[in-house]
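One such given next:

>
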Amino acid sequence: MAYFDAASTEPLHPAAREALLGALEGGWADPQRLYGSARRSRMLLERARAQVAAAFGARADETSFTSSGTQAIHLGVLGTLHARRRAGRHLVVGAVEHSSVLHAAGRHEREGGTVTTVGVDRTGRVDPEEFAAALRPDTALACLQSANHEVGTLQPVAEVAEACRAARVPLLVDAAQSAGRAPIPGGWSLLTASAHKWGGPPGVGVLVVRKNTRWRSPLPEDERESRRVPGFENVPAIVAAAAALEAYGAEMERDAPRLSALVDLIRERAPRLVEDVEVIGHPVERLPHLVTFSCLYVEGEALLTELDRLGFEVSSGSSCTADTLRPSHVLEAMGVITHGNVRVSLSRGTRAADVDRFLAVLPGAVRRLRQTSGVTG
């Protein structure tokens, strides 16, 4: 099987596995206590915090660990809105943000706040000037992802950060897809990420809150994680996440051009090999490992199942499910085809031979499904 779904989760990095096993032996005790085994746990935790903070260009005391990237976003959004109620109750978000951002925005609206959603072009990219125009004197927070999770388009974080700085509005950047894979522009006030995206273990998220950013926990206070995140720290998993981030980031500096060339190959050849295919996302301003395309006259779930049968584990950019019957909000916002969608995201070590084989079987897979549905081509 060829694993082509790294945007969902990256396989556990060997460095993470080694660090995890070591920390299970030495990092099991409560890092809040004062006896020897607890002090060893605390040392491991703080060393991991310093590693992760350095990777994001932050201070260790600005960096907290959560139970997931989603929890980091919820705490970041709701905590900032809570702390800045006197400044205003207006929130600005991009139309293609991760659902965790949009769900937090929905809660804010239900509780009496207001939300402005900034649209995107057909590549999935916001216009910095349009984003800046959405900022108001009563804007408490703005949210913009570093890169889109479905189509890989990089967002103009630096330009938006400059506009937010001029308007004195904190900017939260969801860096889940970029962390470890691509540079993250500075200028943000809050940053969130998720360890399993870079080859760390699941169950570890990161929330960074800059020192000059007003933030107050929307949850009951807890003495853990500088009173930002409640609950007992999973020290072994955090240590493994930090080790994976360092190792994975170093590998991607070398390997990103190779993965990007493989993605270029798919972007170029898929529309030539299969009729009625639209490649989605920005062709240049994009993540190095991700490409999404849509096939007309094919159901996305059927295509994913057929590709799985042929040895390729891919996902769909569309989040259409049987219970909601709604297509992806990202694809809808972009104004592109929302069905027959395939997201290919290459993991570390993906071989060129796997991509060649994928392109070889794709035309036949699409043709068989179209014939089944009564469409030829």
User: Anything to note?
Assistant: The CA atoms of residues 56 and 183 lie 9 Å apart. The chain has two domains: 14-247, 254-372.
